[in-house]
Amino acid sequence: MKKIINDPNNVVHDALLGFADAHPHLITVDLDSKSVIRANPNPDKVAIISGGGSGHEPLHSGYVGKGMLDGACCGEVFTSPEPQQMIDTAHACKSTKGVLFIIKNYTGDVMNFEMAQEILETEADFPVRSMIVDDDVAVKDSLYTAGRRGVGGTIFVEKIAGAAAEKGMSLQEVSDIAVKVNKASRSYGIALTSCTVPAAGKPTFQLEENEIELGIGIHGEPGRERASLCDATYLAEKIVTPILEDMDFLGEPVIALLNGMGGTPLLEQYILWGEISNRLRIAGVDVQRVLVGNYITSLEMAGASLSLCKADDQMLSLWDEPVSTVAMKWGN
Amino acid sequence: MKKIINDPNNVVHDALLGFADAHPHLITVDLDSKSVIRANPNPDKVAIISGGGSGHEPLHSGYVGKGMLDGACCGEVFTSPEPQQMIDTAHACKSTKGVLFIIKNYTGDVMNFEMAQEILETEADFPVRSMIVDDDVAVKDSLYTAGRRGVGGTIFVEKIAGAAAEKGMSLQEVSDIAVKVNKASRSYGIALTSCTVPAAGKPTFQLEENEIELGIGIHGEPGRERASLCDATYLAEKIVTPILEDMDFLGEPVIALLNGMGGTPLLEQYILWGEISNRLRIAGVDVQRVLVGNYITSLEMAGASLSLCKADDQMLSLWDEPVSTVAMKWGN
User: Fold this and answer.
1) Which of A28, A31, A32, A63 is nearest to A48 (CA)?
2) pLDDT surpassing 70 at residue B332
3) Order of all β-strands in the sheet with B287-293
């Protein structure tokens, strides 16, 4: 294992130290609860909190800031955070209007966030809701999930619900929008290589030199099939087809995220995006917003995923609202 | 070679297709001259043009936009662009106030940009200047360079000179500022793995499982020494020491860039930044601005580099000016 780390069991703590040091104007870090909080919590808005296992950076810590998340709970690498972290984070956000938990659909995350919600409902003086992201069309159930996994669609949910909260909407409204965005989002990912969890010290899985995994999860969970390495044109078809088969993306504007899994250069991501864009255009999909880059990664895994969100006017308008976080910035 | 590509000899063209498709509001791409131009060229400002071999994305194409570059010339992977590309790009920027070429110090780039400058000086109706970035303290000369290599300091030069041009400064003023920023910048990089140039099909160099290269160049050129894989704490010392030995960074604010080489996860980059920040603090360096992420990469190489810029009031103020490009955005 070749990594720039100290103690392999301490990587999340050590990275949070550096994260706090680098971005004091945007975030604060509570090292005890391993949570990232917006630098200036705003009690007059709904607080949006997400979290999950680390190793997917910039998700979620990089999305804490104005117009997106109020807090992020960081578990160990590929491991759910504990309920107490979520409870501490909810209190630290200081919202009087309530807290929305955005949970990627993994059994551990769902269980722990729901436990935190139950405890907060009895002890906190603010209301708490939660919603689950399950946008991955690749598999019905998987290694760590009952039902579909939550992957790149999380970016759409966090950005759009974050903008809704920033505009002063109620907990019910923000929660409804988050649910709506998830329902309108679909994703599919592929991997060329595995990644290595520091505490494990060896690759999560093995792929031969000429082999790729289609429908991969963000923790290296198996996907739909192993296939031979192919060119970008054919790979685009293998990615676009299952998404378009799963949902009708015609008739409204679409937001697209071509996401790098961590070890794939931008040069390759843009080649793949060009091919995917062609296929979407031929299929009649009206892509109006595009992100290309490393937004939800699996450490150093080589690979990519595509996420599409069929956005109505409200969703598109909230997507365009300003955002100011470490990893996503636009507008004023 | 496992890559998401079609023809290995066509990767730059294919990636530019996807880049143009993804970001039409910010940039246009001329596929013939393989250049990226700001979407709305402004004839009333100095045009800043950079370029070089591809494979370092987001450099330079990702920095085209308001407050930074007006044009970027894209060579093949790790290969200088041709003079004609630079000439075409200079004309496409439509500046009446003149063009500044920002050139990373590699023999091919310098020769071709200088040839383009000579031709433009005889045929164009706008003045042309050029300046060379040579911020890498690792080696005096290298495989592709007479003198020091131009690496991460390029980001400082492009951002700060870009802001100066955006504010309406003259070609002489913008050029003077670019030279000043380069003189105030130093960098040092390390690699854990090689990268593979698509057209070559095999890794540029070999490192054993327990070996790292200190003082690496952004094309995999050899550095100062091969060393054993060490922890992040010791690695930070190996990176910070040669930079601080080369220049006195005390007495003024410092801008820091902790750059990932492409294959190193953000988790590791932040661990390394935490350690580097500690060392800089102990040494009395007053770091006031920090970037952490993949800003100047070497395809999928695992590794990192540190760049520091000792910024006077003017430089710091220009650094803070708004910028709106694909890869760097802040302010209004």
Assistant:
1) A63
2) no
3) B225-228, B211-214, B185-191, B303-310, B254-260, B287-293
Query: Which residues 131-170 of B have a C-beta within 8 angstroms of A?
Result: none
User: In sequence order, what E strands does B175-331 have?
Assistant: 185-191, 211-214, 225-228, 254-260, 287-293, 303-310, 323-325, 329-330
Tell me how far apart the alpha carbons of residues B273 and B289 are, in angstroms, rounded to a whole number. 13
Shortest alpha-carbon distance between residue B25 and chain A (Å) = 10
Tens-digit pLDDT profile for residues A26-37: 999 999 999 999
Q: Are the beta carbons of B57 and A263 separated by less than 8 Å?
A: no
- Whether ipTM > 0.90 holds is yes
Among A150, A175, A138, A147, CA closest to A160: A175
B102, B50 Cβ separation under 8 angstroms: yes
pLDDT in tens, B80-131: 999 999 999 999 999 999 999 999 999 999 999 999 999 999 999 999 999 9
Residue B104: strand pairing partners = B133
The separation between the first and the last C-alpha atoms of chain A, rounded to the nearest angstrom, is: 42
Q: Does A266 touch chain B (CB under 8 A)?
A: yes
Spatial separation of the C-alpha atoms in residues B7 and B193, rounded to whole Å: 24
Q: Output the pTM of the full model.
A: 0.98
Question: What secondary structure does DSSP assign to A56-106, as a single string?
Answer: STTTTGGGBEETSBSEEEEEEETSPPPHHHHHHHHHHT--SS-EEEEEES-
Tell me the per-residue pLDDT of B144-166, one tens digit each, with 9 for 90 and over. Answer: 888 999 999 999 999 999 999 99
Q: Do A12 and B267 lie within an 8 Å CB cutoff?
A: yes
Give Cβ neighbours of residue B198 (< 8 Å, ≥ 6 apart).
Answer: B1, B3, B5, B8, B9, B11, B77
DSSP secondary structure string, B279-297? Answer: HHHHTT--EEEEEEE-SS-
Calpha distance B30→B33 (Å, rounded) = 6
Tell me how crowded residue A108 is: count the other CB atoms within 10 A of its CB: 17
A29: Cα separation from own chain's centroid? 19
Min distance A180 CA to chain B CA atoms (Å): 25
